[in-house]
Design goal:
CATH superfamily: CinA-like
CATH class: Alpha Beta
Strand order of the largest sheet: 2-1-3-4-5
Order of helices and strands: HEHEHHHEEEH
Strand content: 15-25%
Shape: globular
CATH topology: Maf protein
């Protein structure tokens, strides 16, 4: 069971306020976090005012079917890449009635890493309806839970930046 994380609750609360202030709705596309970001967003009372949907696309096939990630992107760059994260975020924005979307895809461990993409490598993308976008890759330390929590924190901070017009 997921234990509450005060930092993530605080960020989710700030995100809700920023989205409500703008009248925006959010969609999330998650892979390695398996819905953890959506869980924290929906833990905030009144989150239905700003959260529209979440996509948990753990497999490559799910990314293709649900978010229109191109098979060529997966073949060329892999599921853990900024290219894939960008297509995931764009797909979440396109398949929702939303103003803002973000994607998380990575290797939470303890297995699955390579020398090029070690355990803890997580790629992110953020996009809004106004055409603003950003992507990033981080390599987080710690166990599976720590990597997943750091990923959710990172995605929330990026969403806040877009929602507050800082990107």
């Amino acid at each position: 069971m997921l234990m509450a994380d005060d930092t993530l609750i605080t960020l989710a609360t700030e995100l809700k306020a920023a989205l409500v202030r703008r009248g925006w709705k959010l969609a999330l596309a998650e892979s390695c976090t398996g819905g953890m970001a959506a869980q924290y967003v929906t833990a905030i009372p009144g989150s239905s005012a700003c959260f529209e949907r979440g996509f948990i696309t753990y497999s490559n096939q799910a990314k293709i079917e649900m978010l229109d990630v191109k098979p060529e992107t997966l073949a060329r760059h892999g599921a853990v890449s900024e290219e894939t994260a960008k297509e995931m975020a764009a797909g979440a924005l396109r398949h929702g009635t939303v103003h803002l979307a973000a994607a998380i895809t990575g290797i939470a461990g303890p297995d699955g890493g390579t020398p090029e993409k070690p355990v803890g490598t997580v790629c992110f993308a953020w996009v809004d309806i106004e055409g603003n976008s950003r992507s990033a890759t981080h390599c987080f330390a710690g166990n599976r839970d720590a990597v997943r929590r750091q990923s959710v924190e990172t995605v929330f901070r990026g969403l806040l930046a877009l929602a507050n017009g800082e990107i």
